[in-house]
Write a structure and sequence with these properties.
The structure is a homotetramer. The first copy, chain A, is α+β, with helices and mostly antiparallel strands. The first copy, chain A, has 3 domains: 157 residues, Gyrase A, domain 2; 60 residues; 31 residues, no CATH class. Helices cover 37% and strands 18% of the residues of chain A. Chain A has 11 helices and 11 strands. In chain A, strand 1 and strand 2 form a beta hairpin. The longest helix of chain A has 16 residues. The termini of chain A are far apart. Chains A and D meet through strand 2, strand 3, strand 4, strand 5 and strand 6 of A and strand 2, strand 3, strand 4, strand 5 and strand 6 of D. Strand 3 of chain A pairs antiparallel with strand 5 of chain D, so a sheet runs across the interface.
Chain lengths: 316, 316, 316, 316
């Protein structure tokens, strides 16, 4: 590509270029500023880090920003770099990095955490993907069942992982169902998977892929690239590592967390202290605690939540 | 609810309220400004407008903003109201409303179109929902197959609508496949639907809904409330009413367009002139047209696109 | 506008229309469903509700979605309508509306709150607008100082409202400064405002508005239409009604809250109980409370925060 | 940080870790996949690339994702990597990378371009920042005039760059105004800047920074970190490198483009061919061209636009 010469747009055209020592061609009006310290790759030179999930799934970390950081630092330093621009030069000496990061996360100053970006390659069943895609801030490129044949991969839980519906909680359940019913359900899944060969056969006979896939169950696997900033990843993880999330997506979220923990360790420590392990007290609960009176609510569920919190706090 | 007294937050508390003639309680520091003209409901007092799609689906308009507009106007007037604040008072006499709206849309001044909002209730197959949800600017509340039993509704195309895979275009196809193969495919769908009774039976035996649904095919229906501003609705429609979109989602998009056309007619007319029926000429095509030379590209597909555009323009 | 006939896009064209009793033209494939109960306007037939802020500013509510609601309900009902689609028909009898809304807000099920939309017209100083615009989920149309002359309106605080810099908190301060310094500052503002007549004069001599405005101080007023869903409005309010927010934007946020309180009263009550008046306990604080030991942190600020929380909880 | 043990959340805890050759600690369930080809840094080992803009401003590229790419490739390869997951394995042989990237950009398949991310550090006048911030998809950390003293840097145009208001175009103007008026305007700017010493003096006397800054003109500089994906950067550039954009922001946009051109050269070439140098023909214009009749519009401006397009196309 030559220089920009979009004259109709009134741009000044750039005619001179230089080639950097690394072979990159740049316009010569660019001032290059060398790094003060040697840079190291936060992924150690690897192409990807991968954690298998279930029989056919995985979460793979394929890139990070920052990827290269000065020796002796972690990628958390990009948060500090951005926060310093907000707080101005005067703050440099006052806070040390860990304290600043913890302060920012504790007080929900979220924008500096958006300066870190991770890119993942993930394979998961469609019913998991449908929960996942509701997080709208990520960038996504998904495998297209319109363009391509869907591979023969299906989610099948272990017998123990066929849960029974909770009676107290309409969201799923954590207890296994009796083995007989579990096996009956696994047989149903097997029969739904068995339709795959007819799907394949019909696409070979010329049925358009976009319509042929209608017969596949939501247990079939899809995959995507998923790129997101750290603030929104932490929001995703706080919801999807939670005990109310469906176990299947929790397995993916936990794998994702394991992949980033070594790269942004200071942030993850603060995330556990101030988010994962934290507790919200409502105005009513504060009043009840302060006065020793019962909760000013007749709602049964709200009272049960207050009892559970008191138990965790060691009160009463 | 009493007055706001969040003293810890340093807010000034508001203690006085008044009740409006319509029975609405408002703090008495609110100045109420009456409408100059009588207002009419753009939906004519209805609760919803609905268009059936396929056997079990529908697109229903359930609300619009603005809902009440002065007599003699259309909801397009909200675009003009917002644009006038950008352009300042001086512009009021110069442009008339229709000309302004057309100018804004032609020149992609998109923000005034974001001032109009529509809310829909939609029922559609999961494979359509999965294409739809990729439009991230909308607000969505979807039926939860974790909480509730999925109803017995499946998408089944007509025999003519079982398309064959296009050989020139990897995205689907518009031609019907032979009747024999189509019927074989419809039998496959029937067999995938037949698993539903076992899904129902197993949930009655206590299998958690969140896991039981794994056996259901992506042809099963889901539903959601979907709320979006007009600019992003038009973007959605321009992609999903397009001939490259899968026919099934095109049917929904066309129904949505029919629902809003009577409410924002000036915008829709401009949308057809400047978006739906428009054509992009690339820099290479402009050069070819200007000089009479062949397209400066050896890419076969790019040349075919240029030939198609020339045909549509009546050139050569 | 006639019927859609975008044949190149492969759309099925719609040729028949009907005119509703209210004079709205709709394609005749639309099924109109009448409201079960008479509808009332949540704004009582008014064009706008306005609260003056400072000398020249205001927050005006210009529209709401839902605007029309069944007699006997509040606009909160739109949250319930959307949540019911998620939870399915079975839940209808179990929960009553207020309990459901409180549950949703307490457990951060945020999407149903996105189904309500408010539109405001606001006039505020540029330095306030610059904080405000950081909330990215809203739709905004701002007065353009490129197109139009900026009117002669500037923010000037009262003498008491000229605060001194806090020594413990780098964010502003709440104490007034001595009267002499305050008056010196007000004189500075007066001198910055006095440049306005030369701005006006130079634009009359032909200097482009886009460049002439460079001399105006950030205390000058701008205005915009600002449209946002209720979930994101509550997020905005929780940050901008907070005691750490700058007083000037807090005044606008409080006015906004007053405008919506009468329209979504159930949500606002829950917002106060579960958000405004709530408190977060960190993992370290939970542990300290449970064990009676000191906080496991040597960070001075974190310890001070814990002391403040204990005081508010009536502990020690 | 130790292993995750958030037992209350039901997560499986990870107890084993390993240290990679690069000193990164990772849970031992991570499978590390080495790169096939040696990796090179797209920024050639530099900490930043910077282009000065105006007297005090700059656009600096501080990071890119991907930062490390296989020898012999450009960062464009991340687009191809993501697109391949959509199109499936079968496409690998068919298209070559450049053709695929050009196809994606020509047909507005935008999501693969979101897989590339750039981070910039920018210093610019407030009136430029206010136009810039309207692009909502970026992540931003701005210097805070609440926390810190605003440095003494102001935008002052050259005499030639003091434009006169266009009479045909309400957006700014490109012609210089007479020297006398220009110098009168520069004197106005000088006087607005002279207030700075009193701002500084008053903050030293204790006036809170958040309120003291109200006297500063919008020509004063601010700075921020700005991180955005390539798709949205191209959208920003297409609007802000355009001849209708204010010259001052155009200078920044052009600098940004120069910084990324060497890193994603294939995309930038396609961007010029299919976006910057492209032309939209409306439905009315297509009809006029096809039939040889006049444009079916009486709008003066629309006709003028058509004449300009015909001239550029060499028609008539």
């Amino acid at each position: 590509m030559g220089p920009v010469t979009c004259d109709h747009a009134g741009m000044s055209s750039e005619t001179e270029t230089v080639t950097t020592p690394a072979g990159v061609v740049v316009p010569d009006r660019i001032r290059r500023v060398a790094s003060e310290a040697p840079l190291r790759d936060v992924m150690g030179g690897d192409a990807r880090w991968e954690i298998p999930v279930h029989d056919h799934g995985f979460v793979a970390l394929v890139d990070a920003m920052p990827r290269l950081i000065p020796e002796g630092q972690t990628a958390d330093s990009a948060i500090v770099q951005a926060a310093r621009v907000s707080y101005g030069a005067g703050t440099k000496k006052v806070n040390e990095d860990r304290g600043l990061i913890r302060y920012l996360l504790r007080h929900r100053h979220t924008t500096p955490f958006e300066m870190i970006e991770f890119k993942f390659h993930i394979a998961m069943p469609i019913f998991v993907a449908r929960q996942w895609i509701r997080h709208r801030t990520a960038n996504v490129n998904e495998y297209s069942a319109r363009y391509s044949i869907v591979p023969d991969r299906f989610y099948r839980p272990s017998v123990e992982n066929v849960r029974q519906q909770s009676t107290t909680n309409r969201q799923g359940g954590d207890e296994s169902i009796d083995v007989g019913t579990a096996e009956e359900f696994l047989k149903l899944l097997e029969d739904s998977e068995a339709l795959y060969s007819r799907y394949l056969d019909l696409t070979e006979k010329g049925v358009a892929r976009e319509i042929a896939r209608a017969a596949l169950p939501v247990s079939v696997f899809t995959e995507w690239y998923w790129k997101c900033d750290l603030h929104n990843i932490l929001h995703f993880l706080s919801l999807r590592m939670d005990s109310h999330a469906q176990i299947e997506i929790r397995d993916y979220a936990t794998a994702m967390y394991d992949l980033i923990r070594g790269i942004v360790p200071i942030t993850c420590e603060a995330f556990e202290d101030y988010r994962l392990n934290a507790m919200q007290l409502t105005g009513l609960e504060i009043e009840a605690l302060r006065t020793g009176k019962p909760l000013a609510s007749e709602n049964r569920r709200e009272n049960a939540e207050w009892e559970a919190k008191k138990a965790r706090l060691g009160l009463e």
